[in-house]
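Students often ask what a holo structure prediction actually looks like on paper. The answer is less mysterious than it sounds. You provide the chain, you provide the ligand, and the output is a string of discrete structure tokens encoding the 3D arrangement of the protein together with succinic acid.
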Amino acid sequence: MLTVTNNDSVLGATITGVDLSRPLSDKDFAGILRALGERGVLRFPGQLLEPAALRDFSLRFGSIQTTLTGKFQDANVPEVGILSNIVENGQPIGLADAGQDWHTDMSYRDTMGFVNVLNAHQVPHRDGKPLGNTVFANMHAAYETLDPALKEKLANATATHDFNKFWDNMCKRPGSTRPPLTAEQRAKRPPSVHPVFMTHPITGRKVLYCNPGYAIRINELSEAESDVVLEALFAHQLEARFLHTHVWSVGDVLIWDNIGTLHNALPDYGPNEHRLMKRCQVMADRVFQSDFIQRALAA
Ligand code: SIN
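The corresponding structure tokens follow.
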């Protein structure tokens, strides 16, 4: 039986009693969706999945975005991306610096990200301590505690999100092996515009949907004012009281809600301390369909 145990934190729960390598019943999917809305980040321990099983589980939530570069994906299941600092025969086997700053996935697309699904295959350790944690921030709480005057000012505001911002910032980091994007790749990822405050499709509550990784401009404000307001939003949403740290174990499947949380993968491990994650990035194409959530939760 599916069991949800909440963390003693602003986000997160552990789910047991379900085998993700097998097709999920509608009842278990409903339980998982409900927990995702309530807790934002869900850990399923002890589930080392084959790529096809990771893809099939992820597909329950929506369509999967494949990589822009066509690199670092599973040879047989291209929906599964490889995130890793492992180098074999002089060649990296995965994207080494994925997600290593605050962001939420796919806010740069018209169809934003809904969930990420990560499966931990190797977790670096030093002196017995796991490294490469992923930290999350709760955007329901960030919205609810935002200064009322700022809430009113931004009530109908929109923000532009740009894929290039995160990519270019990562390229500038010392030792980065990310190649600059080609003009053709940039053209495939034009900026997107989303409301700064969104109604979350599962909870029906408002979230702050703006993140330092991709948001570049509040469209209704002058450039100068937009810069000031964005800095204020970024500082607020990353206050310690909204944060939850996930410490990885091999076999964890972690799913998180990209609409209601931000995340940051901590690069506190060295080149010989190997981390290997397999990832599916699921788009919010089904979750905003009028009856998807209603029907799923009714099971
Ligand atoms: C991501 O941002 O999807 C990667 C997070 C991680 O590797 O912990």
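The first strand starts at residue 3 and ends at 6.
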